[in-house]
Amino acid sequence: MRAIGFLALAVLAAVAAAAIANGYGSSVAREFGPLRPAVIVEAGLPAGTRLAPKDARRALAVRRVPERFAPAGALASPAEAVGLVTTASLPAGSYLLGGQLRPPGRREPTIGPLGADRSPVEIAVSGADALLVAGPRPEGARVDVIVTSEPGSGPGRAYIAAHSVPLLALRPGADGPGPGGTAAATLGLTRRQALRLIAAESFARRLTLMPSR
Questions:
Q1: Who has the most CB within 10 Å: 10, 111, 154, 188?
Q2: Which parts of 33-166 fold into alpha helices (H)?
Q3: What is the Cα–Cα distance from 201 to 53, expressed in whole angstroms?
Q4: What is the mean pLDDT of residues 75-95?
Q5: Nearest 5°: CA angle at 202, between 201 and 208?
């Protein structure tokens, strides 16, 4: 009878723990918005790693995070990365972004070393279709990032937030290509430029890429 009692207590504890976890998830969703799956790099991966299924199981994990906090281009499942090659070193604890992967055998654009002061950063941009139809793939070119602010008491303004930065990768965003769609652009940015553009993603009307002159 004592064993049955312990078993019943264990079952009740498990049910209570599940209820607490569900309640916590609901609380987070109410406070920060809906949750979405996002792939996290659990074990660091060097640049040029081709992700076999065993690598994905070993190095990648899925976490549910508030949708507003997940960066543009974050993968939702490790299966999306299988067979692809990392384009940069991916530290443990970082999100895995689509712009950090490429098909095997494809040559990377020649952009020269980023330098110690720059890192790959992915941002959501508008108007990228103009770059895609202008000629060959734009990866490897240098671009200006234009921020168009929301109108406040007066008209909004547009200004160059990052000048002549290397474009490392460009792909359609979650809403797909088209005049009103966004794209995920991976840029080689200094820390100051990255912080400025990440902040602009939250308050600006749009961020636009233009070829540098």
A1: 188
A2: 53-59, 129-133
A3: 34
A4: 87
A5: 25
More confident residue, 21 or 143: 143
- Whether 100 and 178 have beta carbons less than 8 Å apart is answered as no
Highest mean pLDDT among 26-35, 162-171, 177-186: 162-171
pLDDT, one tens digit per residue, over 42-51 is 998 888 889 9
| Cβ-based neighbours of 2, under 8 Å, separated by 6 or more | none
User: How far apart are the C-alpha atoms of 31 and 126, rounded to whole Å?
Assistant: 28
Q: Are 73 and 173 in contact (CB under 8 A)?
A: yes
- Token readout for 180 is 């009103």
The pLDDT of 72-93, averaged and rounded, is 85
Q: Buried (b) or exposed (e) across 141-163, using 16+ Cβ within 10 A? A: bbbbbbbbeeeeeeeeeeeebbe
Q: Measured between alpha carbons, how far is 46 from 135 in angstroms, rounded to an integer?
A: 32
Q: What burial class does residue 88 get, using C-beta atoms within 10 Å of its C-beta: 0-12 exposed, 13-18 middle, 19+ buried? A: buried
Instruction: Give me the DSSP letters along 152-165.
Output: SSS---EEEEEEEE
Main-chain dihedrals φ then ψ at residue 117, nearest 5 degrees: -90, 0
Q: What is the pLDDT of residue 136?
A: 57
Q: Which two tokens stand for residue 107?
A: 């040559």
How far is Cα 120 from Cα 37, in angstroms, rounded to an integer? 22
Place of tokens 């078993």: 7
Under a CB-based contact definition with an 8 Å cutoff, are residues 100 and 78 in contact?
no
